[in-house]
């Protein structure tokens, strides 16, 4: 960076933004077409080798982002803690839950997981498939893409509910051919104080969890995963926007990972049709969310001291 940019904060900010934006855009256009091209071959024949190659290309794309974080945004301090009973492997199969506050959360997950866990997929909206390169890559890489129908639409056409469930089931089952991390943001939307107040959420730092997606994933994958992992992300200096993060304006990020023990009764239950099981499952998730709420509070208190 030029000496002139160092003297003028605005110029420095513009220079950094242009650098990051250019590298991310260039990397996306470099890595995206091969993923799409290889993905098209799967229309003719499913191939594990193609899947593995696409994951390697995707990890290369993520490594560029991580390089930017480490070398262009070096002011961000990371506080990462992993509970001792959680042993992670690049060959593992994991379900993951996480609190959701910002689009930055996904970048934090990718930054953390690139060298510790298999490629992270997450339940996403079907509408994202129309985003050039990114949306199609989600589909090719096996992200469960959901068409979220309203209650009115389902009431008019009840078969829509079963169709969504079947599509999610197929997407989850396809993951079993390889190592994977499947992420579920249980809150279903990003936390804001307004949403928290509207919900009258019983948690201090979290919105109410939506347990259905986790129940579905555990029903399909539960006896074949290595661990249910809970990630907690805290931004002690305020929840950042995406542009703030990539401009290096996030002083600190704290991440905690813990292993969640899955009770035997959880596996094999019918969340959709068994009201008793559904109530019990929701209570279990509620208790996990209470623990998570307390964890966030303790992390915030630990990090309350101002940055040196």
UniProtKB/TrEMBL annotation:
It comes from the Bacteria. GO terms for molecular function: acyltransferase activity. Keywords: Acyltransferase, Transferase. Residues 94-236 form the Phospholipid/glycerol acyltransferase domain. InterPro entries: Plipid/glycerol_acylTrfase (IPR002123). Pfam families: Acyltransferase. SMART domains: PlsC. This is Acyltransferase. It comes from Acinetobacter towneri. The lineage of its organism: Bacteria, Pseudomonadati, Pseudomonadota, Gammaproteobacteria, Moraxellales.
């Amino acid at each position: 960076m030029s000496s002139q940019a160092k003297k003028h904060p605005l110029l420095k900010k513009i220079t950094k933004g242009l650098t990051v934006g250019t590298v991310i855009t260039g990397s996306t256009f470099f890595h995206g077409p091969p993923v799409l091209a290889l993905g098209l071959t799967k229309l003719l024949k499913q191939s594990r080798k193609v899947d593995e190659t696409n994951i390697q290309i995707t990890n290369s794309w993520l490594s560029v982002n991580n390089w930017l974080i480490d070398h262009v945004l070096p002011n961000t301090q990371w506080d990462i803690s992993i509970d001792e009973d959680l042993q992670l492997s690049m060959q593992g199969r994991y379900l993951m839950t996480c609190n959701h506050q910002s689009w930055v959360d996904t970048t934090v997950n990718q930054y953390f997981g690139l060298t510790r866990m298999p490629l992270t997929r997450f339940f996403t909206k079907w509408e994202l498939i129309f985003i050039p390169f990114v949306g199609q890559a989600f589909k090719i890489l096996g992200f469960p893409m959901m068409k979220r129908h309203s209650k009115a639409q389902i009431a008019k056409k009840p078969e829509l509910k079963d169709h969504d469930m079947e599509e999610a089931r197929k997407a989850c089952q396809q993951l079993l051919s390889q190592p994977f991390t499947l992420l579920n943001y249980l809150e279903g939307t990003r936390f804001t104080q307004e949403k928290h107040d509207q919900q009258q959420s019983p948690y201090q730092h979290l919105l109410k969890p939506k347990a259905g997606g986790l129940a579905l994933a555990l029903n399909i994958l539960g006896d074949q995963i290595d661990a249910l992992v809970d990630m907690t992300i805290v931004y002690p200096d305020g929840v950042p926007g995406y542009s703030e993060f990539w401009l290096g304006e996030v002083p600190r990020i704290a991440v905690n990972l813990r292993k969640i023990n899955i009770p035997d009764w959880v596996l094999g239950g019918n969340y959709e049709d068994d009201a008793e099981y559904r109530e019990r499952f929701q209570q279990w998730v509620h208790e996990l969310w209470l623990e998570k709420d307390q964890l966030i509070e303790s992390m915030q208190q630990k990090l309350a001291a101002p940055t040196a």
